[in-house]
Amino acid sequence: MLKSMFQKIFEWLKSAGGITVAVSVILLALATWDQGPYILVNTVVTGGMLGLVAMGLAVILGVLNIAQFAHGEYFMIGGLTAYYVITPIQNYLTAHPNAFLAAVAPFVAMIFATLAGAIAGALTELLCFRPLRARSRANWVMNSFLLTVGLSVILVNGDLLIFGADFKGIVGYWQGAPLSVAGVYVSIDRVMAFILALAIVIGFWVFMKYSRTGQAIRAVAQDELGALMVGIGLEWIMVLTMALGCAMAAVAGASLLFMYPSYPTVGLEPLYMAWFVVILVGLGNVMGALIGGFMVSLLKVLTVAYVGEGWQFVIPSVLIILVLIFKPSGVFGSEVRGVLDQ
Amino acid sequence: MKSGVSKHEMGLLSRILDRLCLTPLGALLLIILALLPFIPPFGEEYMLRWLTLIALTAASAIAFDLTAGFINIVNFGFAAILGLGSYTSALLAVRLGLTPWVGMFIGALAAGVLGFLTGVLTLRLRGIFAAVMAWFVGLALMGLAIKMVWLTRGPLGLRVPRLVQNEANQPYYYIMLIMLFVTYVVCRWTTRSKMGLAFKAIGQNMEAARTSGVNPTYYRVVNFTLSCTIAGWLGGFYAHYMGILTPDLMHTSKTVEVLAVAYIGGRGTLWGGAFIAFPFLVAMELIRSGASNMPGINLVIYGLILIVVMIYLPGGVASLYYRFLYKPWGKFWKFMISYKENE
To answer: What is the ipTM of this complex?
Structure first.
């Protein structure tokens, strides 16, 4: 029993995914030993949220076959909503201190942000993709990709038009002394962001695995026609998937508001990073995206630590180019039809 | 473009125009463009500057359409490849004192080589991979241009010698018009040759093309390389026209600009994007300067038009031309648009 388990682990370690994960873990350990534990903490904290954004991207890619270019904009919508919800509450709190409200307010802001992201996603599906789908499905991957490009232009500049170009950020959600983890001081916001990301990912996984709706979503991802034949309401599933994927980006934007103050083009960096993750793990591989989030986050932290600030786009880009050249299906393999064969 | 009439039955004018791939109407529009600097409001320096940059976008849209419209690959790193041409030419001029007239072509070569490498590596996969790979190549290039301050001076801007020792915009405008025309003719010659037939076959149905013995990878790489080469050449002009280069030039939003023009103009027509660039970009600029208290409104409209065109008018403005104006109305109009019954 134990022996066969070891054998399985050994087999997995020899696959591309296993090698990548092993190398990442070793690199992380070496860097932590060399530079101090802040590498580990930074990787883990930003990796969770990055994984969340990338998972949203992967779900949309897997189920709807849409290569989202506007995903960062839902991140922006989340941050913006959270800002406008939390600021009045925090102003009220400075006048009337209230420990309970102070602890709950950030969650209220995040729930509002999630709802805003979900509504924006559903509207996008209803107003943009449904008419396009109804019109023609020829060259769907490319056309929908270009549609999201236009969408991104509209959302970024609409934000600029309505809310202005200034940075709308907060100092932090939760007051209180930073926690000390392995000798590194980590603010409560970061810890909460990580915990939240994990909770959402686990919740999402349970939803996809066990609920009927989640199973329906997976069925559509596997075979659209087959799903239609067994009586799954395709249109509803598509709206739901889009809303879910966008809500994940929005909640990430909301909970990282203290790191990424909201301004029109804030979504660009999460978008790039999420794409790095999705390409690295294989297009549409949802659970791989979580692991990939940590790997890309590690890569980013290592680049900043060893090469310097500002190189974090160059080096991951080069690495992703290598992945595209040598293993275009990603290190964990891709499960998407359409993107590969259409 | 083959017609029922054999070559020597056509008049001399028609034969020349046919060789230049223009209809008489197209030639007329081109002549109007060439005469614009003598028409009062367009003769101003700032107007000429606009027009030159619009013509550059128009030429870029043609080169972009060669891949996007014919083989259905969206080159998402187009601006970065154009920027590579700019920086190559500019650095040769600044560091080695090479004349821009030669440097532009070396820049084109560099862009072509990068395009070739990108193409060889990704074009055997499906279209989205090439788009994403080109995008990341573009990001990496822009990152390099920002970070290699010792070479490119990064965001501080690289001062570049200009193409002609003249502060006026007029010579540049004419150079740009010639480059626009050359771009068009090169792309049109390619697409109406046998190779163009292969491009169209691949773009419409790759499996069918492959079954008929067309090697998709070969043709796609040729197409992609050609498009990138032209982009690099245009980039060389940009560098020596602006006189200052910043890495912003390579930003994805610049690609989106070219993409929007090419798609609104009509994919797969080449002339559509070049034609629509002039009225469209002038209108956008007017909106931007007219509504300066509403920053971003022009780009919102831009994005809306792009989406509406993508969903409801996939053929772009060019399809409107074929639907409403490509009609045998009288002898003169028939001549102007070179209408052919059997097409």
So the answer is: 0.81
Residues A288 and A232 in one domain: no
User: CATH assignment of B12-336, given 2.60.40, 1.10.287, 1.10.530, 1.10.3470?
Assistant: 1.10.3470
CA pair distance B15, B9, nearest whole angstrom: 9
The answer to whether B136 contacts A321, with C-beta atoms less than 8 Å apart, is yes
Q: pLDDT band at A250, cuts 50/70/90? A: very high
By the 10 Å C-beta count (0-12 exposed, 13-18 middle, 19+ buried), B128 is classed as: buried
Tokens 């773009």 sit on residue: B203
Mutate to test the interface with A, among B70, B73, B74, B126 (most CBs of A within 10 A): B126
How much is the pLDDT for B10? 63
What pLDDT, on a 0 to 100 scale, did the predictor assign at position B109? Answer: 92
Which domain covers residue A279, as residue numbers? Answer: 267-337
Per residue in A163-201, pLDDT tens?
A: 888 888 787 777 777 777 667 777 788 888 888 888 998
| Calpha distance A245→A117 (Å, rounded) | 9
A318 → chain B, closest CA residue:
B140
8 Å CB contact between B148 and A314: no
Average of per-residue pLDDT across A271-299: 84
The predicted-structure confidence for B32-62, as pLDDT tens digits, reads as follows 888 877 877 777 778 888 888 899 999 999 9
Domain ranges within chain B, ordered by starting residue: 12-336
Q: Is B142 on the interface with A (CB under 8 A)?
A: yes
Task: Please state the pTM of the whole predicted model.
Answer: 0.85
Confidence of residue A246 (pLDDT cuts 50, 70, 90): very high
Q: Which of these three, A207, A230, A265, is where a domain ends?
A: A265
Nearest by CB to residue B133, choosing from A135, A159, A321, is A321
Which H or E run contains A81? Answer: helix A71-95
Report how far apart, in Å, the C-alpha atoms of B183 and of each of B122, B241, B274 are. Answer: 25, 18, 10
Interchain proximity A313–B296, CB inside 8 Å: no
B296, B302, B310 ranked by CB distance to A160: nearest: B296
CB contact under 8 A, B128 and A158: no
